[in-house]
Write a structure and sequence with these properties.
single chain; 297 residues; alpha+beta; 5-stranded antiparallel sheet; 7 helices; globular
Length: 297
């Protein structure tokens, strides 16, 4: 059974993390699978678990740092899981986990559906954002999600409450599952109004640092911007190899080379220096794939 699904699902050997993450660095995985449907994703998930094969799930790769070298395992890519279905009676929109923010907003703009415009400009997928309760401008996924469909060996539709959303967290980060789809609550608006909301949000993001990054590396601390804390520690412009702390926004670490080790070392350096200066332990938003030679790998 496992061999059948491994053969049936589209796959690729020597999968490059550098080519599939916004950091643009990292090594390769033995193999990557690209399930074409939720059913295929569930069967693949079960087969990988049954065979004891190490694997990770990857969407747009916008909030991850993959280690250099070989990842001895499989990658489950959600790229093909991009269906969307609008229910005009219930005013809900179901999107599969691989739908990107850009695709979501294009769909909503065309149909005059409001409620998710605050996500504009985030280079992520719906599944990844739901998992970490991502957001921007003081709004989060938890503000517009009705339920999340997951598979952990069985299908579950977790209500907003059951997702236990918190700041940059959800229960999906604590359980061994794959997110299949998200059910959004939406409101009717004119396409022009939705487009204006999206444009306003994109204008607000225009000043964010350019370059290869994961966006903000660290979570805010007790309501205080992590960027302000890092700046207060005098770390703007700090550098390890070709990785550096942005001079524009200190919570952005830019990859100017091709080494995940440099990025990771700089993250550790920033954490250590902030702790030495303020006694504050910053918590990473970025998720790690592979081995980085300590407990965070």
């Amino acid at each position: 059974m496992s061999a059948d699904i491994f053969d049936a699902v589209p796959h690729r050997r020597d999968f490059s993390f550098a080519e599939h993450t916004t950091y643009g660095c990292g090594g390769c995985a033995d193999i990557a699978y690209f399930p074409r449907s939720a059913d295929e994703a569930c069967k693949l998930f079960s087969a990988l678990k049954a065979e004891g094969i190490k694997f990770c799930i990857l969407g747009a790769g916008s909030d991850v740092l993959a280690a250099d070298g070989l990842y001895r395992g499989a990658v489950v890519c959600t790229y093909n899981l991009r269906a969307m279905e609008y229910d005009p009676i219930g005013l809900t929109l179901r999107t599969e986990c691989g739908v990107t923010v850009a695709e979501l907003l294009a769909y909503c703009r065309a149909r005059g559906l409001s409620g998710t415009e605050f996500l504009a400009g985030i280079p992520a997928t719906v599944g990844g954002l739901a998992c970490m309760n991502g957001g921007a401008g003081g709004k989060f996924m938890s503000d517009c999600i009705k339920s999340v469909r997951v598979f952990d060996g069985e299908l579950h539709d977790l209500t907003n409450e059951e997702c236990e959303f918190a700041y940059k967290h959800s229960t999906m980060r604590d359980i061994d599952c794959i997110i299949l789809s998200v059910l959004f609550a939406v409101e009717r608006q004119t396409p022009a109004a939705v487009a204006a909301n999206i444009a306003a949000r994109l204008k607000g993001r225009a000043a964010l640092p350019a370059g290869r990054s994961c966006g903000c590396v660290f979570e805010n601390y007790c309501g205080v911007s992590a960027g302000k804390i890092i700046e207060g520690a005098g770390l703007k412009g700090a550098r390890v190899g070709k990785a550096y702390v942005s001079a524009e926004h200190a919570d952005f670490i830019i990859n100017g080379g091709d080494s995940s080790a440099d990025v990771y070392a700089l993250i550790r350096f920033v954490k250590d220096e902030v702790y030495k200066k303020f006694g504050i332990t910053l918590k990473e938003e970025v998720c790690y794939i592979g081995d980085f030679n300590d407990s965070n790998g």
